[in-house]
Design brief:
The chain is α/β, with parallel strands linked by helices. Helix content is 37%, strand content 14%. The protein has 11 helices and 10 strands. Helix 5 links the parallel strand 7 (143-148) and strand 8 (168-171). The longest helix is centred in the C-terminal third of the chain and has 20 residues, at 300-319.
Length: 320
């Protein structure tokens, strides 16, 4: 496993991070989830990402139990807030930030997180209020650094224009071979500001694993077939044209002695601005396979070949 600095922070994060959306505390049984965490540490993953809304606190509570007794200095822990935790609790107001960080720390059984992220932008709360509250959280030692997910460039610029507040060190956008929108503006701006990228859905909700075949129902053990984990599964990703294009990547991966997931992860990690790619896992062997993408360098001719195969499908997905 290789490690990269997260933006301007002192955090050295593994190139592959372990996420918990729709898996831990929700769609994966406790024993297998614990095995995934053990395997993550065994293969050198030191970065675990979660959010208060995952399972309405269930993912954080599971992680609090699973990480009990593990040296707190041996891993980097990130969580988020914004989405509703109840009919009254949502958003990025000062009151919510202080309430939700305390609730997250209690569930996670720790006195601090390494990274506290705004899960989305809150247009109903003045940005200055949000930034000052996040700064207070850092000053109190409850979070070492702060980040955001899926903010626009205008929102990012506005945040850095506020004086005497903590700076964002990370961005968490959706990014994969099939979703390239951040390349146009978010990545260049963040590179200029020394903000690192922690990309989510690098396997395009599992489609880039190659497990979904055109004209066939999803495998019984796949996320798309799971009532607990198929939430927000984008229909455009299972378009016949998209699935056919993904199958055409297999010979490229085989020629490089890689699996399709490894190829897809190496592709997002080709950019220096990407600090880490978040994977979801329901089995330890998936963690092992994905971790092996760390350190893989894709030659320029391979990148060109991938674009020729997949760029039209990516444009189709982004237009839906």
């Amino acid at each position: 496993m290789r490690y990269r600095q997260l933006g301007f922070s002192e955090l050295e994060v593994s190139e592959i991070a372990l996420g918990s959306w729709l898996t831990f505390g929700v769609g994966v049984d406790r024993e297998r989830a614990q095995a995934c965490i053990r395997r993550a540490f065994e293969v050198g993953i030191n970065f675990i990402d979660t959010a208060n809304v995952y399972g309405r606190g269930a993912a954080e509570s599971f992680l609090g139990e699973a990480l009990a007794g593990v040296d707190r200095g041996s891993y980097i822990l990130a969580t988020k807030l914004f989405f509703p935790m109840s009919d009254e609790d949502r958003g990025l107001s000062a009151a919510q930030i202080h309430k939700q960080i305390d609730a997250s720390l209690k569930r996670l059984r720790t006195d601090h997180v390494d990274l506290y992220q705004c899960h989305r932008y809150d247009a109903s709360t003045p940005l200055e209020e949000t930034m000052k509250a996040l700064t207070k959280v850092v000053e109190q030692g409850k979070a070492r650094y702060i980040g955001f997910s899926e903010w626009t460039t205008d929102q990012i610029r506005a945040s850095i224009g506020i004086p005497d507040v903590a700076r964002f060190t990370s961005s968490q956008p959706q990014y994969s071979m099939l979703w390239r929108k951040p390349e146009a503006d978010v990545f260049p701006l963040c590179s200029e500001l020394d903000i690192g990228q922690i990309v989510w859905s690098p396997l395009a909700q599992g489609v880039l694993s190659g497990k979904y075949l055109p004209g066939h129902p999803p495998p019984s053990d796949s996320r798309a077939a799971s009532p607990e984990m198929n939430t927000f599964f984008r229909p455009a990703l299972r378009n016949t044209h998209v699935l056919t294009a993904v199958q055409r990547l297999k010979p490229i991966a085989q020629r490089l002695s890689l699996t399709l997931p490894q190829l897809a992860l190496a592709w997002v990690l080709r950019l220096p601005v990407v600090s880490s790619a978040i994977i979801g896992a329901s089995r330890p062997d998936q963690v092992t396979e994905n971790a092996m993408a760390s350190g893989v360098t894709l030659p320029p001719d391979v990148l060109t070949e991938i674009d020729a195969v997949l760029a039209p499908a990516a444009r189709e997905v982004e237009q839906v």
